[in-house]
């Protein structure tokens, strides 16, 4: 547009050529700047995509590790419950058998009785957690709050 306007002004041909040359030079410089900006943007995009890919790998490893640890925890809790049931049966047997009460002192009987009562109540608690696990950060680290939805892993990125 500007080139056409310059031609329509009707100045000398030489002045018009100089104006057109300056306009072309300004346009060329602008194109060079835009090309450099585009190159820098592509380089930055490549760096960010590489970083994103590395973070996705870390996320995948973390998810797998959480899954492994949860399986270990469930196995350990199941084993603990199994051992507690065995202990409960032994305690009940000791408390019921006449020879068990005779062989044990009153103090031992009261300790076993207290233990049996506590263990029975603990064993019947449906979703009890191991007391050895510190869950003071449960709101931050609870496995029930973690989303295992992997649909975003399958999203095609363009």
TrEMBL record:
Keywords: Coiled coil. Residues 38-97 form a coiled coil. It comes from the Eukaryota. PANTHER family: RAC GTPASE-ACTIVATING PROTEIN 1. Signal peptide: none annotated. This is RGAP1 protein. GO terms for cellular component: centralspindlin complex; cleavage furrow; midbody; nucleus; spindle midzone. One of its GO terms (molecular function) is GTPase activator activity. GO terms for biological process: mitotic cytokinesis; mitotic spindle midzone assembly; Rho protein signal transduction.
